[in-house]
């Protein structure tokens, strides 16, 4: 795939949709990188199709209904709780 497979205008359009400001050098670099990515996807077309159903096996255990902890027992070892819920640090 040639480097002009993704035009600078397309890169600017996508950057605009993502609200990302790019200078001219970044636009050129991303155009080349997008072209490389599209080329990788084209190699998937070369993978032969499989003509049979895959033998799938469920490796997960079956769900089992069990009693859960009551609220007081669940909060017993919590470093902080508030109004019956776990309390974590503030995220700023």
TrEMBL record:
Its EC number is 6.3.5.-. Residues 54-92 are annotated as: Disordered. It comes from the Archaea. The keyword Protein biosynthesis applies. InterPro entries: Asp/Glu-ADT_sf_sub_c, GatC. It catalyses: L-glutamyl-tRNA(Gln) + L-glutamine + ATP + H2O = L-glutaminyl-tRNA(Gln) + L-glutamate + ADP + phosphate + H(+); L-aspartyl-tRNA(Asn) + L-glutamine + ATP + H2O = L-asparaginyl-tRNA(Asn) + L-glutamate + ADP + phosphate + 2 H(+). SUPFAM superfamilies: Glu-tRNAGln amidotransferase C subunit (SSF141000). Keywords: ATP-binding, Ligase, Nucleotide-binding, Protein biosynthesis. Heterotrimer of A, B and C subunits. Allows the formation of correctly charged Asn-tRNA(Asn) or Gln-tRNA(Gln) through the transamidation of misacylated Asp-tRNA(Asn) or Glu-tRNA(Gln) in organisms which lack either or both of asparaginyl-tRNA or glutaminyl-tRNA synthetases. The reaction takes place in the presence of glutamine and ATP through an activated phospho-Asp-tRNA(Asn) or phospho-Glu-tRNA(Gln). PANTHER family: GLUTAMYL-TRNA(GLN) AMIDOTRANSFERASE SUBUNIT C, MITOCHONDRIAL. This is Aspartyl/glutamyl-tRNA(Asn/Gln) amidotransferase subunit C. It comes from Haloterrigena turkmenica (strain ATCC 51198 / DSM 5511 / JCM 9101 / NCIMB 13204 / VKM B-1734 / 4k) (Halococcus turkmenicus). The lineage of its organism: Archaea, Methanobacteriati, Methanobacteriota, Stenosarchaea group, Halobacteria.
């Amino acid at each position: 795939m040639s480097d002009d497979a993704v035009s600078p205008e397309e890169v600017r359009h996508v950057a605009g949709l993502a609200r990302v400001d790019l200078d001219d050098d970044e636009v050129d670099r991303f155009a080349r990188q997008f072209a490389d990515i599209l080329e990788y996807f084209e190699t998937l077309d070369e993978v032969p199709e499989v003509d049979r159903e895959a033998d799938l096996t469920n490796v997960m255990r079956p769900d089992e209904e069990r009693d859960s902890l009551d609220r007081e027992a669940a909060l017993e070892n919590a470093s902080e709780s508030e109004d019956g819920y776990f309390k974590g640090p503030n995220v700023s």
